[in-house]
Amino acid sequence: MTRPKKTDDPVLAVRAVRTQQADKPVYAFFIAGADLLKIAEISRVHRDSEGSLQGFQRKGIKSHVQAITDFLDRGPVLFPNAIILAIAPSARFIQSRGERPEGDTRICEAGTLRIPMPRDGTKCAWIVDGQQRSIALSQAQNKAFPVPVVAFVSEELSVHREQFILVNKARPLDARLINELLPELDVVFPRDLSARKIPSELVHLLQTSRSSPFKGLIKRISEESSEAVVTDTTLVKAIRNSINGALGALAPYKCSADTPADIDAMFRILVGFWCAVRDVFPDAWGRPATESRLMHSAGIAAMSVLMDRVMSRVASGVDLRRHATEALTRLAPQCRWTSGRWNELQRDWNEIQNVSKDIRMLAGYLVRLDHAHAFSKVA
Questions:
Q1: In b/e form, how buried is each residue of 83-120, taking b as 16+ CB within 10 angstroms?
Q2: Given 102, 197, 212, 218, which is the most exposed site by the fewest CB atoms within 10 A?
Q3: What pLDDT shows up at residue 257?
Q4: CA–CA dist 90, 153 (Å, integer)
Q5: Read out DSSP for 219-285?
Q6: Angstrom distance (rounded) from CA 122 to CA 39
Q7: pTM, two decimal places
Q8: Rounded Cα–Cα distance for residues 108 and 18 (Å)
């Protein structure tokens, strides 16, 4: 192998271990987060003037980068996710001298990796996986945050693309699994996960609390029950929409700059409304979605929109369940959850599907019925 020519360009020296895969050197080391983009570039996918495809990385997602930066800036955090780099042969590895320790598996060797940092601005490494994290780390307040890196030696774009596809084709964690894990963890999450934690926690309470009408009825990955009829993701989404919506019944209780989220108040509203749903529609409650569109994802979503309207006008001191029961009783005669036809919608009861169009149509009809009854005296 020809040794790289020595230059007076500065180098970044890091302690590393080296191994071999497919006849290519592979290094593992730690580097300050702020130094990543000093040695590695992001090869954006684009077409050159002749129409040939160049690069392989998609455009950066600002919201994702900002979420990671916010997470890193919250204080001491554990962030051991490794960045994968392709690195040029100009990076030199100098093996450490000395005897190997007893029991050494000889799968790798320790030493110092010297990474060139040419004065002309060119870089000798390319980010294969972790571009969003790399940008966030460069923007984080702690410029010395140690980041694990795995780098393989290759200057071939085809190899970079191959590894990029292999790394990113793996199926991500099931959203339902994440929803179940979140309530069990008492840590600070990035913004996108934090927004999912409270709805997931409320769904967990609905599944386990004795006061909940949903107790034992929610389908979760961790449980197998023939009695479960409502998918957890449906409730998580409905609750998240209520918390984030300007007119959501749960919105007044979300966290603000001065106060934490009032999960107890949110839970009381959910229990009050859904207990009333169970009381007013006992024949449709707790049955499989094939037998009851009330327990179908479309029914849950539409009724959650109605919940926002009904529970947002509860007067102080009024019993939540009684208020919801009175509202639902007025529109119950027009509902067709298990048989018959929704005449105004021109749909049989079992034709309502879990698609946006049907959910909006059903929710709109329920809200109009509620409005007509609740404000009839005003007219």
A1: bbbbbbebbbbeeeeeeeeeeeeeeeeebebbbbeeee
A2: 102
A3: 78
A4: 9
A5: E-TT---TT--EEHHHHHHHHHHHHHSTT-TTGGGS--SSS---HHHHHHHHHHHHHHHHHH-TTTT
A6: 8
A7: 0.67
A8: 5
- Residue pair 347/308 in contact (Cβ under 8 Å)? The answer is no
44 DSSP 8-state letter: B
Three-state SS at 337 = coil
d(CA 129, CA 166): 10
If you ran DSSP here, which 8-state letter would residue 338 be given?
A: S
Contacts of 80 (CB under 8 A, 6+ apart): 148
Neighbours of 170 (CB within 10 A): 6
For residue 329, which of 374, 375, 377, 379 has the smallest C-alpha distance?
A: 374
- Region of poorest pLDDT, from 162-166, 173-177, 231-235, 339-343: 162-166
Structure tokens at 69: 């930066």
Per-domain residue ranges for the chain?
11-168, 175-374
Question: For residue range 237-276, what is the model confidence (pLDDT) as tens digits?
Answer: 999 999 999 899 999 999 887 888 899 999 999 999 999 9
Asked whether 342 and 365 are in contact (CB, 8 A), the reply is yes
Q: What's the rounded Cα separation, in Å, for the pair 273 and 167?
A: 45
H or E segment and range at residue 149: strand 146-153
Alpha-helix residue ranges (DSSP H) falling in the chain: 36-39, 62-72, 131-139, 157-168, 175-181, 191-208, 232-244, 263-280, 297-311, 320-331, 356-374
To which H or E segment does residue 147 belong?
Answer: strand 146-153
What is the model's pLDDT at position 1? 45
Return the bridge partners of 110, or none.
Answer: 17
